[in-house]
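Lab meeting prep.
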Amino acid sequence: MAATVFESPFFGSLLSGLSKVYLKAIGWRRVGQLPDVPRCVMIAAPHTSNWDAPIALAMVFAYRFKAHWLVKNTAYRWPFRGILKWLGAIPIDRTKSTDVVSQMIEELKKRAELVLLLSPEGTRKKVTRWKTGFYHIARGAGVPMVLAFLDYARKEGGIGPVVHPTGNFEADMREILQFYSTVTGKHPERMGAVEVPQG
C-alpha cells in the first residue's frame, strides 16, 4: 500500500508544525489524546460549516495520525488519484452489490492499522437524524468508535471518549449523542436536536 502524507517524515513534520501555528493563530487549541488503538472508526462532528474541513484537517496534521476518508471511485482517477491516495483517501464503489458498510468492514478487517474518519451528519445543513453507517462499520469490523469534535464556543477541537459498540444500538447511540450535545458547531442553529436513530 502506498505511503500517505502522514507517513512522510519530511511532509508529516512540516504539515504538523504549520498546522500547530495555524491553530494557534486562529485561537484554537487541541484537547485530548489519541487512544492506543490501531484500527477504529473516528466520528467527526458536528458539521455545520465549510470552515470545519480546514480546521479538522489542521487538527489531524497536528496530531500526526494516519487519517483515512472515503471518496467515490469515479473521482479516484488521474490526475487526482495520486494526491488523493497520498492524502489518505479510500475509493468506494457504489455500483457494487456490496454496500459501503460492507466494503469498509472488509477494509478494516484486512488492514493492521486504519483510522477511518467519517461525518455521520453527511451535510452542513440541519439534520435531526444521523446516518448510522459508522456504527455498523465499527460493529461489523469489531473496532471501537473514537469521538472527535470541533467546539466553536470554546475554540477547542480534538479527541473525546472511545465507545466500544456493544450491539445495543440505541444505548450506544445515546452515549455518543450525549457527548456531542455538549459540543457547539459554528452554526448552532443547524445542529438541531438529533434523535436517537432506530438500528
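Slide two material, second protein:
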Amino acid sequence: MKAEEARGLSVKEREEKITDINQEIFNLRLQLATGKIENPSRIRFLRRDIARLKTIQKETCVPEESSAKQGE
C-alpha cells in the first residue's frame, strides 16, 4: 500500500486495514513456525504498511490536538 492510497482512506477504514494486516501477519507467523510459508519477506512488507498507516493516522490527529490547545 502506498502512502497516497492510505491518505485516501477514512479513519475507520485505516483502523480496519491495520486490523486486517495484523491478522495476516499473525497467520504468516504461524506458517513460519510450521515451515509452510511461501514468501517470508511478505511479513516485512506488511509491517511497513502498518507503520505507514499509523504514521498517516497520527499526522491527521496531531493538527486537531494542536488547534485545541491554541484555543485555550
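Talking points for slide two:
Residues 41-70 form the longest helix (30 residues).
The two ends are 38 Å apart (CA to CA).
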